[in-house]
Specification:
Number of helices: 19
CATH architecture of the largest domain: Orthogonal Bundle
Number of domains: 5
Protein name: RAS p21 protein activator 4
CATH topology of the largest domain: GTPase Activation - p120GAP, domain 1
Keywords: GTPase activation, Metal-binding, Repeat, Zinc, Zinc-finger
GO molecular function: GTPase activator activity; zinc ion binding
InterPro entries: C2_dom, C2_domain_sf, PH-like_dom_sf, Ras_GTPase, RasGAP_CS, RasGAP_dom, Rho_GTPase_activation_prot, Znf_Btk_motif
Number of strands: 24
Largest sheet: 5 strands, antiparallel
Organism: Cebus imitator (Panamanian white-faced capuchin)
CATH superfamily of the largest domain: GTPase Activation - p120gap, domain 1
């Protein structure tokens, strides 16, 4: 049994931010920290005081986390980025909103005395004495202290205060993982109510020392315990915090939901998994109808989550194609008009969206990546709508004469035709590059739709069914928001964003097979029609080849791909090579292209496919693939052993114990994460439990209106038996959760000795 916690985070927008630049504006972005560990950085929105981000993240984290903080920053090219303000949500606040914390929150000023992080290792003893007892405080070491100096470290020392007396440790230069091993003693009076205060400071030569955090010890509790030792989390000095007014730093709109799940052993979920798999294998021909029943009882708000959980569960069981085929048949059976097929947010549509993101992301990058990069690099002004043309933004066509509106429109059309043509050509060449399971799924979709809508009048319907997912729900969203699909590290500026939007509209027209309805919506897209019509023919030829795959070829291709571990992360990293010591010595960087799978970490001098990843994404990926490693070290050295000591903690033993604890639990969830079958089963169980009353109502309806209060002990042959089995499985899982040991969040070590100030 394991406790899993996750955060669903959506950073929506900001408003009324203060101007930080001389232009009277700001370039805001957000950084998200969990217990002072940075995990997310949004895109920078340039030159605005009311930025819109709209970025969503899923974060896995330990149940014992304390708070999540959102920092709004102003990016500066020539100096250190300015801090505008922050919003901090504690775990208790999030737990008090089971449906999620949502709304506008005022930004608060960032007080340096509150920006603390790290832990300190103390040994506390009450010793007998001739006249009075003595309090001994041994300051051993600290880890993960906040870097306060420009070199990315601090010069920490510790100040111990008790009853007016103050003693200090030595200063450890340039380290966030210092070791002191120094002991201090104070006379202890019985019944004294004063607390022992241990403060960490960063020493500065020319300015005031920076506060790093403190621990307050209840001496009376220590008197009873006599001796305590452990790691203590550094706390902010709230007694010095100034009263801050709200509203003058602007506001941030957030949607944050905390979800705690107790995941039982795999054997507990086997009956649920087997029952659902049996339903999928039987398809619409079987007596059970659990999948449509799940769709019927799932609200619109949580349909995407349920679809993703089911898709990942069946993907792990090798039944993703069968599950989607069942959903295709169910949707086709209730669709009478061909032009409405797969246009709603049904379970089939949501599941197919999730499937393409899980199985087709690398394929998307290989096809779209070069075109998106070219759009970003060119930064051309592109506009087809005459009402939005701004000639002054374009520049001059000659030395003196500015371009006319007609010239701007023609040049824009040429640029978009070139991008659209390049994209369609790349797509047509990618038949064999498309993953085997994606090809097989599209083939099954094509066949099912052609069987449901035969005849010449519905000739294009099977093609539109494929493009409704491939173009409208996969390629077009990736073109409009390339950062959200990891095609770029940052959002596009306003000019590039407009180009991408127009290109996405053109792709949608091609995906709609250039129907009159799609052309009538925006008549100013007419200059692209020759390329769109040519693209329709190209796309139909591509789909024909895509779905025309022999069974043997498909099995061989699937077998080949199954032998290859899917990459978790891939892209370039810069390896620093120091050629000498001292500021005058030369150093260089070596660029290598790394690929991380669930089995190995490899590198090469040249990339097979270009993919830019930020450092925190690499760290997150490394944590994910090592999270189940039984030999995972409890601590490690975040620095290097250079000369005769570790750069992080200055230990002189190369094989010495690590100075920083291994954090393997705070990770970003992405589509290419390794599957966690037990967690997916638990999330499906949690959803079914929330709609159990509706399932019971359906069971009574199928039982002829009988007021059944318990599930039949043994299944019969009636159609409702699958539902009866499901209700029994839910009952058994509920009992398993009730009988499992309480899984309360892990407390900090020696937390009883800390006073809440």
């Amino acid at each position: 049994m394991a406790k899993r916690s996750s955060l669903s985070i959506r950073i929506v927008e900001g408003k009324n931010l203060p101007a930080k630049d001389i232009t009277g504006s700001s370039d805001p972005y957000c950084i998200v920290k969990v217990d002072n560990e940075p995990i997310i950085r949004t895109a920078t929105v340039w030159k605005t005081l009311c930025p819109f981000w709209g970025e969503e993240y899923q974060v896995h984290l330990p149940p014992a986390f304390h708070a999540v903080a959102f920092y709004v920053m102003d990016e500066d090219a020539l100096s250190r980025d300015d801090v505008i303000g922050k919003v901090c949500l504690t775990r208790d606040t999030l737990a008090a909103h089971p449906k999620g914390f949502s709304g506008w929150t005022h930004l608060m000023e960032v007080d340096p005395d509150e920006e603390v992080q790290g832990e300190i290792h103390l040994r506390l003893e009450v010793l007998p004495g001739a006249r009075a007892r003595r309090l001994r405080c041994s300051v051993l070491e600290a880890r993960d202290l906040a870097p306060k100096d420009r070199n990315g470290a601090s010069d920490p020392f510790v100040r111990v205060r008790y009853k007016g007396r103050t003693q200090e440790t030595s200063i450890v230069k340039k380290s966030c993982y210092p070791r002191w091993n120094e002991t201090f003693e104070f006379e202890l009076e019985e019944g004294a109510a004063e607390a022992l205060c241990v403060e960490a400071w960063d020493w500065d030569l020319v300015s005031r020392n920076d506060f790093l955090g403190k621990v307050v010890i209840d001496v009376q509790r220590l008197w009873a315990a006599q001796q305590e030792e452990g790691w203590f989390r550094l706390q902010p000095d709230q007694s010095k915090s100034r009263r801050r007014e709200e509203g003058n730093l602007g506001s941030l709109q957030l949607e944050v939901r905390l979800r705690d799940e107790t995941v039982l052993p795999s054997s507990c979920y086997q009956p649920l998994v087997q029952l659902l798999c049996q339903e999928v294998k039987l398809g619409v021909q079987g007596p059970g109808q659990l999948i449509p029943l799940i769709e019927e009882t799932t609200s619109t708000e949580c349909r995407q989550d349920v679809a993703t959980n089911l898709l990942k569960l069946f993907l792990g069981q090798g039944l993703a194609k069968d599950f989607l085929d069942l959903l295709f048949q169910l949707e086709l059976s209730r669709t009478s008009e061909a032009n409405t097929l797969f246009r709603s947010n049904s379970l089939a549509s949501k599941s197919m969206e999730s499937f393409l993101k899980v199985a087709g992301m690398r394929y998307l990058h290989s096809v779209l990546g070069p075109i998106i990069n070219k759009v970003f690099e060119e930064k051309k002004y592109v506009e087809l709508d005459p009402s939005k043309v701004e000639v002054k933004d374009v520049g001059c066509s000659g030395l003196h004469r500015p371009q006319t509106e007609a010239e701007v429109l023609e040049q824009s059309a040429q640029t978009l035709r070139a991008h659209l043509g390049a994209l369609l050509s790349a797509l047509c060449r990618s038949v064999r590059a498309c993953p085997a399971v994606v090809r097989a799924t599209f083939r099954q979709l094509f066949r099912r739709v052609r069987e449901r809508f035969p005849g010449a009048q519905h000739e294009n319907v099977p093609f539109i069914a494929v493009t409704s997912f491939l173009c409208l729900r996969f390629f077009s969203p990736a073109i409009m928001s390339p950062k959200l699909f990891h095609l770029r590290e940052r959002h596009a500026d306003a000019r590039t964003s407009r180009t991408l939007l127009l290109l996405a509209k053109a792709v949608q027209n091609v995906g709609n097979m250039d129907t009159p309805a799609s052309r009538a919506k925006e008549a100013w897209m007419e200059p692209l029609q020759p390329t769109v019509r040519q693209g329709v023919a190209q796309l139909k030829d591509f789909i024909t080849k895509l779905v025309d795959i022999e069974e043997k070829d498909e099995l061989d291709l699937q077998r080949t791909l199954s032998l290859q571990a899917p990459p978790v992360k891939e892209g370039p990293l810069f390896i620093h090579r120091t050629k000498g010591k001292g500021p005058l010595m030369s150093s260089s960087f070596k660029k290598l292209y790394f690929s991380l799978t669930t089995e190995a970490l490899s590198f090469a001098k040249t990339p097979s496919s270009k993919c830019v990843n930020e450092l925190n994404q690499w760290l997150s990926a490394l944590r994910k693939v090592s999270i189940n490693n039984t030999g995972l070290l409890g601590s490690y050295h975040p620095g290097i052993f250079r000369g005769d000591k570790w750069s992080c903690c200055h230990q002189r033993e190369k094989t010495g114990r690590g100075c920083d604890k291994t954090r393997s639990r705070v990770t970003l969830q992405e589509w290419n994460d390794p599957l966690d079958h037990d967690l997916e089963a638990q999330l499906i169980y949690r959803h079914l439990l929330s709609v159990e009353a509706m399932l019971w109502e359906k069971h009574r309806e199928l039982s002829g209106g009988a007021e059944a209060s318990t599930v039949p002990a043994s299944p019969g042959e009636a159609p409702e038996d699958s539902l009866a089995r499901l209700l029994r499985v839910l009952r058994d899982l509920r009992e398993a959760h009730s009988s499992s040991p309480a899984s309360s969040p892990t407390l900090e070590p020696n937390c009883l000795l800390e006073l809440q100030t």
